[in-house]
Design brief:
By secondary structure, this protein is mostly beta strands. About 5% of the residues lie in helices and about 35% in strands. It contains two helices and 14 strands; from the N terminus they run ββββββββββββββαα. The strands form five sheets. A four-stranded antiparallel sheet has the order 1-2-3-4, with no helix packed on it. It has a three-stranded antiparallel sheet with strand order 5-11-10, with no helix packed on it. Strands 6-8-7 form a three-stranded antiparallel sheet, with no helix packed on it. The longest helix has 8 residues. It is globular, with a radius of gyration of 15 Å. The relative contact order is 0.16. The N terminus is likely disordered.
């Protein structure tokens, strides 16, 4: 088991940085990113950069072009999980993780995967539990345009649906 910083209600804090902590839910085995700060909508949560470039997606990449996918640095961003009611957006133009609604300390940081992914490497059944839950998440290719248009989308995805 990884060295932990703290344990609370079946959650192990694996790592901390200035904006969030990487956590492990012992019940589900899932890792997630939990905010340590308050962010207003529109605030920059953290800058990021590409640690590696790929031509095909994997579970830790975000799509920046037709055959362009990047893995993120800081690595903690790999644990920004999906939600159909996201609170952050990966702006790959400015290379900033941006709050798209208010975030409180303790909130899990989550983004809408189809906001950057056209066709995902590993589709899954969403269990976000929100009223807006779409069920199967496989990329923007499978989300109706009228639903996609309610989300903040990367330029790549916006161009794919308008072109």
């Amino acid at each position: 088991m990884p060295k932990s910083i703290a344990v609370e209600h079946n959650v192990i804090v694996l790592n901390k940085n200035a904006f969030a902590e990487t956590c492990l839910d012992e019940k589900t085995g899932e890792r997630f990113l939990r905010s340590l700060c308050r962010f207003k909508a529109g605030a920059i949560v953290t800058p990021f950069k590409a640690s590696e470039h790929y031509t095909i997606p994997n579970v830790y990449t975000i799509q920046t072009g037709e055959e362009s996918h990047i893995s993120l640095f800081p690595i903690a961003l790999h644990y920004t999980n999906h939600s159909c009611h996201p609170n952050v957006f990966f702006d790959n133009n400015s290379m900033n993780l941006v709050a798209i609604r208010e975030i409180e300390p303790g909130d899990s940081l989550c983004f809408f995967y189809p906001s950057t992914e056209w066709k995902m490497a590993n589709p899954f059944i969403c269990q976000c539990g929100t009223d807006a839950c779409l069920g199967k998440i496989s990329g923007a290719i499978d989300v109706p345009v009228d639903i996609l248009s309610t989300y903040r989308l990367s330029d790549f995805i916006r161009n794919k649906i308008s072109g």
